[in-house]
């Protein structure tokens, strides 16, 4: 049974939200506990001075606490939305950065730039909402503190006028009241932090990190990436055209089933057919694109008369050189494809004439992502090689 790897999005959420929620609660509780204890001590002293003095102080505290909890919940919700949108922007930035060479080579930069900008604008809007809510929070806190102080001072004046409190007790109560009011926002904030921290602990406990620790350390793409039309538009348009090289490439890469999902958009002449594809599906599409590109370039080597590298019998051209051996460097290029499909792809490639699939390092650095078969008049050390790098990650 195949083990399902945790999604990269889960790790990003854990790092940007869940871990910080648990840490914040752990750091906040000791300081809040000290202030709450001081507030309770101040309330006890007021009850000793006069019952009504303690009742009024506790009633004001309960009302203020309820209002503060309501305000803090709103702040926490805004902050949570801000973290989620920031995490999405980070995930998209990581994905674009990991595929920068391919994006530049296929001129897909404007499309992905707009995709990232939309996520960034959403994150900035949430940040502005957090700032506005925090400003309102401070105003509410100041208003509550002022109203509570005036009400408490009025009660002390009334009790002192009737002789129920001495001047010393009244002065002591006024000095202790800030301790009581100071505990209110701390207690309210602890209440607001408890629920997110409990949910964060549950998500962290459910996150299976054992597979990630024992698996490959490479960064994987996330499964929310749209199919980039400029990247695979050629495959979409040419599918069904009868090109034997394209048919062989799609069959070997097991990519035909992926492209079939986007046929309605192509039939409607949609300018940018889109859809969601997983990392493994993107890798299969990339492999098909590279093989298709190579099938066209191989004609420069005299692979005419129906012969060639893509599964057809080896034929020597009357006027050109022999078909060169194809070395397909696939360094982690299918690591996100599920194991059964990867085995079928490897078997299909191994059955092709004069095709050698290797996992060796590239000579002198990385090669062209989608294949680089040199011109016929060039004399490179490796005359025909298609290099696929591990730039398409994700769940297969």
TrEMBL record:
Composition skew (Low complexity), residue ranges: 376-386
Entry's localization field: Cell membrane
Entries under Gene3D superfamilies matching the protein: ABC transporter type 1, transmembrane domain (1.20.1560.10)
Keyword annotations: Membrane, Transmembrane, Transmembrane helix
Cellular component terms (Gene Ontology): plasma membrane
Superkingdom per UniProt: Bacteria
GO MF annotations, alphabetized: ABC-type oligopeptide transporter activity; ATP binding
Ranges that cross the membrane: 32-65
PROSITE patterns per the UniProt record, alphabetical: ABC_TM1F (PS50929)
Main subcellular location of this protein, as a coarse class: membrane
Record keyword Transmembrane present: yes
Stretches for region Disordered: 362-396
InterPro entries xrefs: ABC1_TM_dom, ABC1_TM_sf, Type_1_exporter
The keyword Transmembrane helix belongs to this UniProt entry's keyword annotation: yes
SUPFAM superfamilies in alphabetical order: ABC transporter transmembrane region (SSF90123)
Domain ABC transmembrane type-1: 5-195
Annotated membrane topology: Multi-pass membrane protein
Xref: PANTHER family: ATP-BINDING CASSETTE SUB-FAMILY B MEMBER 10, MITOCHONDRIAL (PTHR43394:SF1), ATP-DEPENDENT PERMEASE MDL1, MITOCHONDRIAL (PTHR43394)
Name used for this protein in its record: ABC-type multidrug transport system fused ATPase/permease subunit
Phylogenetic lineage: Bacteria, Bacillati, Actinomycetota, Actinomycetes, Micrococcales
